[in-house]
Amino acid sequence: MVRRPLAVVLALGLLASGCGGDDDHGSAPTTTSEPPTTTVDEPRAFVSSVEEVTAEDLYASWRPGCPLPVEELRLLRVPHWGFDGEVHGGRIVVAADVVDDVLAVLADLYEARYPIERMEPVDEFGGSDEASMDANNTSGFNCRLATGGTGWSEHAYGRAVDVNPLQNPFVRGDSVLPPQSARYTDRSLDEPGMIREGDTAVNAFARVGWIWGGTWQTSKDYQHFSPSGR
């Protein structure tokens, strides 16, 4: 009788237990690993809403005697790209009859990822155009007089939009509004949010027939767009 070494016997036993038979657990299943899938989140779609407003909603920007009844104003809620490269929720008040125009423009700017620092009704700034500009707020309706004039501004009719006022000041002679934007009177600067002839913002407004204040002759209102050109 030939005695096999114990190690060989054990090895043969293990081989035998792994061969044939009905035992499904006789051999480990073969597994393969796949590399993790990397997904890139797409920005959310441009989804807007339009709401009626009341005098209580516009407690600082509207009052009896304004040229447009509050019933003819609307609040638009829209997403917009910020200077930080992120999507933010924006709110802007305009006249009901220009809602479609303004939404078309803002959708174009969103698709182009055009940066807008913030967009809130001027009521958030106590109805102060100066405070709104200081905050670089893109705005629409405000029942106020035209800058440097005695008649109503187009903003009082809800038919004007000011975009990124810090980068796009109002300039008349030596007067710059807001004053801290003096460096942006040099329109050769290439900085985010600045509006120039033929750029994304000017073209988007032009497609709906709105005119840029940067084309004015006696003054320049680089932030301002309106269908009347005033």
Uncertain ranges: 1-40
Q: CA-to-CA gap between the ends?
A: 115 Å
Main pleated sheet: 3 strands, antiparallel
Strands, count: 11
Radius of gyration: 32 Å
Please count the helical segments: 4
What's the order of the H and E elements?
HEEEHEHEEEEHEEE
What portion of residues belong to β-strands?
15-25%
Strand order of the largest sheet: 1-2-3
Query: Roughly what is the average pLDDT, rounded to an integer?
Result: 86
Global morphology: globular
Bin the helical content: 10-25%
Given the helix and strand composition, which structural class is it? Answer: alpha+beta
Architecture blueprint of SSEs:
Blueprint: H1 6-17, E1 49-52, E2 73-81, E3 87-95, H2 99-111, E4 118-119, H3 129-134, E5 137-138, E6 161-162, E7 170-172, E8 175-177, H4 200-207, E9 211-212, E10 220-221, E11 224-226
Parallel strand pairs: 4-5
Antiparallel strand pairs: 1-2, 2-3, 6-11, 7-8, 7-10, 9-11
Helix pairs in contact: 2-4
How would you sum up this structure in a few lines?
This protein has helices at residues 6-17, 99-111, 129-134, 200-207; strands at 49-52, 73-81, 87-95, 118-119, 137-138, 161-162, 170-172, 175-177, 211-212, 220-221, 224-226. It is α+β, with helices and mostly antiparallel strands and 230 residues long. Residues 1-40 have low confidence and may be disordered.
